[in-house]
Specification:
By secondary structure, the protein is α+β, with helices and mostly antiparallel strands. Helix content is about 40%, strand content about 10%. It is built from 13 helices and 8 strands. A hairpin with a 2-residue loop joins strand 7 and strand 8. The longest helix is centred in the middle third of the chain and has 27 residues.
Length: about 325
């Protein structure tokens, strides 16, 4: 693959620039804000509530690949099917037993990884509601051989394929829970739901936030997508899993160098009262919508290469333990 950073500088089309609202995406996201608050919807929600709604509509009308469209249409058709009826009698499990059963069911129903955590209302988008006690986070692995070709039709088709698999996994698990008498609300991408899934995934033990703004998992690196199910079934929370990815990102420069619009910064920034890795939305989104999506950063991330993440995570864990 040609290094995108060596291409001619990207310049957004005037047609696309004309769709931008007066208020920047970084401002909506809370970049530079010292006070904590819930996130505001920016993209991938109902376009009628978004300042960037016209830009989102343009992307779906002009900027998506045929293969990705096929998987997106299949995903939408799947989500249109009614959920199974709620069983009249709720299963009476201990929280430990329920958590074990849920995790086993999730792995049988297309998920590759699963974690459980109490639903924190700080993760709910402003203007939305998520009135459940627990969130079950699901992960589905992507094919790195496809992902590493980003931005390409091949990579975007794979992304939408796995979004569809995540949606199926979430809806199947929600149906399983409803069959055992417990209400459940599923969600899968690419359209956002009521809850920020990355903070939930971090707390549920999926790994750490990478410099590229995506998760890094000790098994799949950055090469996976998220879905979730919310429920009130009493469960047991997982513990976060920090294995050194954050320190690794602090010194690694791969994603900062390959980003064609310099949207990935070398240092953490303050966003809604939290110091974190943050990708410049306003730079990223213009390239994204004109290139049928992107994903260069996670495709080129050292953690994404097939078979690398487990070895690298184990190495960093041993190094950290040796310092104790």
């Amino acid at each position: 693959m040609t290094d995108p950073s060596q291409d001619a500088p990207f310049r957004a089309r005037q047609e696309v620039l004309n769709l931008l609202p007066e208020r920047s995406g970084n401002h909506i996201n809370g970049l530079g804000e010292a006070e904590k608050r819930n996130a505001s919807p920016v993209m991938w929600h109902d376009p009628d509530i978004l300042a960037h709604g016209d830009l989102q509509n343009w992307f779906f009308a002009n900027g998506t690949a045929p293969g990705a469209n096929m998987h997106r249409a299949a995903n939408q058709e799947f989500m249109s099917k009614p959920m199974p009826d709620l069983a009249s009698e709720a299963a009476d499990w201990t929280p430990d037993a329920a958590a074990a059963k849920v995790k086993a069911a999730a792995l049988e129903l297309e998920s590759d990884i699963v974690g459980i955590v109490r639903l924190n209302q700080d993760w709910v988008f402003d203007g939305y509601e998520a009135n459940y006690q627990w969130i079950i986070v699901l992960g589905v692995a992507m094919d790195w051989d496809c992902l590493k070709t980003a931005p390409s039709e091949k990579s975007q088709t794979e992304v939408q394929n796995q979004y569809g698999r995540g949606t199926r996994a979430a809806y199947k698990l929600a149906g399983w829970l409803r069959g055992h008498g417990w209400d459940a609300h599923p969600h899968g991408g690419p359209i956002a739901g009521p809850v920020l899934m990355i903070p939930a995934a971090i707390e549920a033990g999926f790994g750490e936030l990478g410099k590229h703004g995506s998760m890094i998992n000790r098994q799949f690196g950055s090469s996976f997508r998220l879905a979730c199910v919310m429920t009130d079934l009493p469960l047991v929370a997982e513990a976060p899993d920090a294995f050194g990815a954050d320190d690794f990102c602090a010194s690694c420069q791969v994603c900062t160098k390959v980003c064609p619009v310099d949207a990935i910064k070398p240092m953490k920034q303050t966003v809604r009262g939290e110091d974190k890795w943050y990708v410049d939305f306003d730079e990223c989104i213009l390239y994204f919508v004109e290139n049928r999506g992107c994903g260069i950063c996670i495709g080129q991330c050292p953690w994404s290469r097939t078979g690398t993440a487990p070895k690298l995570a184990a190495k960093l864990t041993r190094r950290a333990e040796a310092k104790i």
